[in-house]
Amino acid sequence: xxxxxxxxxxxxxxxxxxxxxxxxxxxxxxxxxxxxxxxxxxxxxxxxxxxxxxxxxxxxxxxxxxxxxxxxxxxxxxxxxxxxxxxxxxxxxxxxxxxxxxxxxxxxxxxxxxxxxxxxxxxxxxxxxxxxxxxxxxxxxxxxxxxxxxxxxxxxx
Length: 157
Hints:
Distance between the termini: 32 Å
Strand order of the largest sheet: 2-1-5-4-3
CATH superfamily: Dynein light chain 2a, cytoplasmic
Mean pLDDT: 86
Number of helices: 4
CATH topology: Beta-Lactamase
Helix content: 40-55%
Largest sheet: 5 strands, antiparallel
Number of strands: 5
CATH architecture: 2-Layer Sandwich
Number of domains: 1
Strand content: 15-25%
Radius of gyration: 16 Å
Order of helices and strands: HEEHEEEHH
CATH class: Alpha Beta
């Protein structure tokens, strides 16, 4: 699959954000991030003020890439779910549609089982939103090969 950036329109962003907000509430999470596999933050909700979201997005993508290398070493395609347990906070990281990374940070108010259940349920919704964004942007990968001056002006209006 093409790993280039895709254009995310306001409609899809709103849909992503709505799903993330519901996930945060249903999983009793502190914060939820949606990251492109390239390491770009797509959307987030929750108590993100204490996080360097740019670094978190990049490191989450790097984590997926590194564990993908480990998976290859043992004959797996990739690991679709990662879990990190800390003293106070825990992090659940999962792949969505082989393109997005869903990061859920939670504490003792929740459990890894509840988070996994809720993530499994919303992953299909997120995949459908991504597919729509890619289709609207011009096909697989959602890549616009050439932006015109008019396209650029419309982005800044």
